[in-house]
Design a protein that fits this description.
Elements lengths: L8 H7 L5 H9 L8 E5 L5 H8 L3 E6 L2 H13 L5 E4 L12 E7 L7 H11 E14 L6 H12 L19 H7 L4 E14 L1 H9 L10 H18 L5 E13 L2
Parallel strand pairs: 1-2, 1-4, 2-3, 4-5
Antiparallel strand pairs: 5-7, 6-7
Helix pairs in contact: 1-4, 1-8, 6-9, 8-9
């Protein structure tokens, strides 16, 4: 599957729910996030974590390999009145100075990287005692839910990887393999947390959110995306007519310290 999120950057920016305020509040409570930190957000996408860090007083550098995604991220940051330095670069080879940052974050993107190389690069960027935070915000698919119906339709159009694929949270939104990734790069004091949230979506917003999925708008031909969207709209109207839809999500984060 060839994935290019730049093809769906508009839907991504408008409809993909970012990390909730409660995620950043948890980082503040645990002493990981505070004003004045120099932070790097790798795989920033449309900048959801980068903006959260900037709102909490960090000096933020945000990186992504996709120029269209960075363009969307810059626009959203400007709308929010936030100053963030955006650069086009991969997480594995950022080109940034060594031991220059107190915090490195990776949200909703770790599975797209060469994870071993990305972990070593994060360790290079951080000062001793600096933190790496890897986080994911996954929808959940209870039996009979609109999410389950949507996933079934996605599978029909673009069969996905097997359940054992390490890029996904095994259907429960947790990522134990990340512990091995960061430990192999020398990180210590590994900690994790998880909590659930419910995100409301109108039918239109849910369709936009799904068009921004890696296996839909980011990989299918435009004509197939249009057919998919038409079929999803019909499923929503027939089986899940209520609005807004209540979509359960699980936040999972791993926090690691550079010695």
């Amino acid at each position: 599957m060839q994935v290019d999120f730049g093809r769906t950057s508009s839907d991504y920016a408008k409809h993909r729910a970012g990390f909730p305020d409660s995620f950043f509040s948890r980082l503040v409570r645990d002493g990981i996030l505070r004003p004045g930190l120099r932070a790097v957000d790798v795989g920033t996408g449309t900048g959801t974590i980068a903006r959260g860090l900037a709102r909490h007083g960090c000096t933020v550098t945000a990186l992504d390999v996709s120029a269209p995604m960075l363009e969307s991220a810059r626009g959203l940051a400007t709308e929010a009145g936030l100053r963030i330095d955006f650069y086009q670069a991969p997480a594995e080879r950022t080109g940034l100075p060594s031991e220059a940052y107190e915090l490195v974050t990776a949200g909703q993107c770790w599975h797209w990287f060469d994870r071993r190389s990305a972990a070593h690069e994060a360790a290079r960027l951080l000062v001793p005692g600096g933190r790496l935070v890897i986080a994911h915000n996954d929808w959940l698919a209870p039996e009979g839910s609109v999410v389950e119906a949507t996933e079934t339709l996605i599978d029909a159009f673009n069969p996905g990887p097997p359940p054992t694929y390490l890029g996904y949270g095994q259907g429960v939104g947790v990522y134990p393999q990340w512990f091995r990734d960061v430990a192999g790069a020398g990180f210590i004091h590994l900690e994790s947390f998880t909590f659930d949230v419910t995100v409301p979506y109108t039918h239109e917003a849910w369709r936009g959110r799904i068009r921004a999925n890696a296996r839909v708008g980011a990989s299918l031909p435009a004509a197939a995306v249009e057919r998919f969207d038409t079929q999803l709209a019909a499923i929503l109207a027939e089986r899940f007519p209520q609005e807004p839809l209540s979509i359960p999500h699980r936040i999972f984060a791993l926090v690691a310290t550079r010695p």
